[in-house]
Write a structure and sequence with these properties.
This protein is of the alpha+beta class and 101 residues long. It is 14% helix and 34% strand. The strands form 2 sheets. It has a 4-stranded antiparallel β-sheet with strand order 2-1-4-7, with no helix packed on it. A 4-stranded antiparallel β-sheet has the order 3-8-5-6, with no helix packed on it. The longest helix has 14 residues. It is globular and about 35 Å long.
């Protein structure tokens, strides 16, 4: 009987460990508008398309999370990312994507 308990001990310890899978980002409540597209309860990253005529793209953060406009990285030095707090809006001619959170 003692041998069986000794064999099962590593399994019991392994079962109590926490999962190594990363946690999913929290979904923001509200609306994220990029250009003419509105996302409901957004999470993750969304593309930022720029007009061919050079007009700025409007971004409206009507969520409960801050958002970040990720800028182009091929410039030296790269420009700083633009962060919008909940309720803020802006127009931009730069950036590759918008990330929630």
């Amino acid at each position: 009987m003692r041998r069986i308990n000794r064999l099962l001990t590593p399994l019991a310890k392994a079962a109590t460990r926490t999962s190594a899978t990363p946690a999913q980002p929290a979904t923001a409540s509200g609306f994220l508008t990029i250009g003419s597209t509105t996302y409901i309860n957004p999470t993750g990253t969304y593309p930022l398309f720029h007009a061919a005529d050079g007009t700025p793209t409007p971004i409206v953060n009507d969520t409960d999370h801050p958002i970040t406009v990720i800028t182009e990285s091929d410039h030296s030095p790269p420009p700083a990312d633009l962060i919008l707090a909940p309720g803020e809006r802006t127009e931009t001619c730069r950036g590759d994507c918008v990330q929630v959170g």
